[in-house]
Amino acid sequence: MKISYYPGCTLKTKARNLDRAAVASLETLGVEVQEIERWNCCGAVHSLTADDLIHQVGPVRNLIRAKEQGADKLVTLCSMCYNTLARANQIMKNDTVKRDTINRFMDEEIDYAGEVEVVHYLTYLQEVIGWQKIKDQVKIPLTDLKVAPYYGCTLQRPAEVGIEPFGSYALMTGLLDALGATVMNFTAADKCCGSYQVLGVPAGENKAAAAIVNLAADAGIEALATSCPLCEYNLGKQQGQMIAKGNITAHVPTYYFTQLLAVALGLDTENCHFELNDPTSAELLQSKKCLAAA
Amino acid sequence: MTLTITGQTQSIQAIEKLNELSGESVKLCMQCATCTGMCPMALEMDFSPRKVMHMAQFGLMEKLAGINTYWKCASCHACSVKCPRGIDIAKVMEALRQQVLRKSHNYIEPSEISAETIAEMPQIALVAGFRKFTS
Known about the structure:
The complex is a heterodimer of chains A (294) and B (135). Chain A has 294 residues and is α/β, with parallel strands linked by helices. Chain A folds into two domains: 2-121, Glutathione S-transferase Yfyf (Class Pi), Chain A, domain 2; 131-287, 3-Layer(aba) Sandwich (Rossmann fold). Helices cover 45% and strands 10% of the residues of chain A. Chain A contains 14 helices and eight strands. In chain A, the strands form two sheets. Chain A has a four-stranded parallel beta sheet with strand order 2-1-3-4, with helices on both faces. A four-stranded parallel beta sheet of chain A has the order 6-5-7-8, sandwiched between helices. In chain A, helix 4 (79-94) packs across helix 5 (96-105). The longest helix of chain A has 17 residues, at 202-218. Chain A is globular, with a radius of gyration of 19 Å. Chain B is mainly α and 135 residues long. Chain B folds into two domains: 12-103, Alpha-helical ferredoxin (Fumarate Reductase Iron-sulfur Protein, Chain B, domain 2), CATH 1.10.1060; 107-135, no CATH class. Chain B has nine helices and no strands. Chain B has helices at residues 12-22, 34-38, 49-57, 61-65, 69-72, 78-82, 89-101, 115-120, 123-133. Chain B starts with 11 loop residues before the first helix and ends with a helix. The chains are: A alpha/beta (294), B mainly alpha (135).
């Protein structure tokens, strides 16, 4: 099996822990990951004004690259990349006027009409590999790890591109369950962490993120699993500061779900780059005896 | 909230422009405030999303130009997915932001961001922030 993969900017640097764990896990599951060539930044956020087509060019160009390279599906991982690519794809598929304008503007590229399907990594795992196959390959079950899926905003909103219906967390629940973890219900799984407001209104963003961490701690959740580098930054990496400011009382380590997958598959922890997470993340897994011996 | 409507503040053209830019129709809003209830940043806003929708319905552009609501919006779409009238409120907020940004006004200055912040923050935070806050 082979897939075309779009990593996005953050996954190549500050979120290597999301990317490397994902690629290594797929390889272990027998999937050849082919990163598309000449990809560029997706733009991070979808343009919400009706007349702004120039910001669709970035994501559409990535989809054109995938089409040129013979892909009918493009698997991606970062929640924001997924959202931006999937929404641009919808415009190209459904809005003939905007599609024609964008295609005419990109006159050095082949025409594009939404032929490539944008697929999130979690959807791919479930539909193509299946939870049972993953369960069969688990070497270190995450037994006793009380973990909750944290979807944030862009995996599910808006509904047209959501990986599953608003309010349902079946995909990540299915995966974590297959990894042997104790999956917890989390009432704030779709609450926004404050997103890019970490740049605009950091104090407000911190409050929104701390409220989520506190809700998790109060519910007895030991860890959160996410697929978004911005959620991980706001919720996970900021926890030391949140504690210093008195906004939270206890750490709730925040992982990328791909790190938990790689750990459970028994992969070398080098693939997980835990040094990029808050230090409590590796400590918790060590205390649960989930990390493979070095 | 009492809205004071005068010949200077109310503008049919402003309503039409906002609708065109957002692709939405603000008159559909029935003022139920579900948007405000869903909003993770409402506490930071001087006027809640519901109040902003009310101002928008009357085309009170002078008033809308001076408030902070749409600068505090995180575009999380929690309001949009729950709006019983089907209004994509995140698009209305974006249109309000863009009306300011397109006059070459930046809400944040990239040159004032510390090197430490740039080194630490994920690229998607910076790119998204620049897209939302700079012209």
